[in-house]
Design goal:
By secondary structure, this protein is an alpha/beta fold. The protein contains nine helices and 15 strands. Helices cover 24% and strands 25% of the residues. The strands form three sheets. Strands 3, 4, 5, 6, 7, 14 and 15 form a seven-stranded mixed β-sheet that branches. A six-stranded parallel β-sheet has the order 10-9-8-11-12-13, with helices on both faces. Helix 3 crosses helix 4.
Amino acid sequence: MRAVQVREAGGALELVERDVPQPGRDEALVRVHACGICHSDVFAKEGGYPGVSYPLVPGHEVAGKIESLGEGVQGWEVGQRVGVGWFGGNCAYCEPCRRGDLINCQNMDIPGVTIDGGYADYVVVNARALASIPDDLADQDAAPLMCAGITTYNALRHSGAHGGDVVAVIGLGGLGHLAVQFAVKLGFHTVAIARGAEKGELARKLGAHHYVDSTSEDPANRLSELGGASVVLSTVTSTSAMAAAFGGLAPRGRVVVVGASTEPLPIPPAALIGGSTAIVGHASGSSRDSEDTLSFSVLADVRPMIETLPLEQAAEGYEKMISGDARFRMVLTTGA
C-alpha cells in the first residue's frame, strides 16, 4: 500500500510503500477513502506529544470502509462505511473509562500521533474507535468532521447554553467556520468574531446573526450590548483574542477553549469572581460523539468547506494548512 510517513521529528512527509497491515484482536482494518489534514498533525510532523515514535504515518480525520475485522470484534461488518478521529479507542479499565469518560482514557491511542494514522491506503485501529458514517455524507466531507466537527459540535452542545442564548465564536477558520454553522443550527443567537471587515460576508453566509470585526470594534462591548454571551467558543490560538471577548460574558458565562495554545491567558483571576464566570477547555469526544456529530451534520445540513488533494500531494496539503492558506480544511483522497 501507499503511505505518507515522517521518519523523524521535524522530518519531511515522504510517500513510501508498505505492506498492508493486518488487524489483531479487537481491531479493524479500514480502507481509507479520505483523510483530513489537521493542525494537530504537527505532533506527528514535529514531535512533542508524549508517546510519539517514528517512523509515523500522520492523520486522524479518516473516512473509509472496513476491509477486514480482527478476532473478537462485534457490531461491525466488512464493507461498512466508518470514520476514525482523535479518539483511538479506550482501554475500559482506567479510572476515567470506568466512570464513562472515554475521551480522557489514560491509555488511549491517537491515530496519526501515537499509532499510524490515515495518510495511507489502509489503517488499523481499535474497533472502539470506529464511527458509522451516514449514507448521505460524502467521505471527503465526513473526514474533517471527525476532528474539527466533533470538537466544535460537542463543545457547543455541552456548553450549558440554551436555545436563544447569545453564543460567540472567535475565529472563522478550519474550526470556526464549522462552529458558526453548528451554533446557528443548535438555535443559538450566534455572533462571529474575527479580524477584518471582509470576513463579514463569510460569517453571514455561514448563518451568523452578527459579525464583529475585532480590528475595528471591541468584541466585549458588542457582546455586552447584545445582553452578554452565555458562551464564547474560542477556536483560535490567540490568547489576546480570548481576553478581548472575555468582558462580554453574561453572568455565569464561560469561555470554552478548543483552539490549542501554549501562551498564558492574560485574564486576572479576580475577573472571574464578579460574574461567576469561567474559562474551560473541551476535548473532542468519543466515537459515539463522532456519530452524533455526523448525524447532526446531515440533519442540519452542516458541511465543511474543503480543498482536496491526492494522497501523494500530502506534503503540499500540509504546508497549505500550516501556512493558513487552506480554505478551510485540506482533505487527502486515495482514489478508492
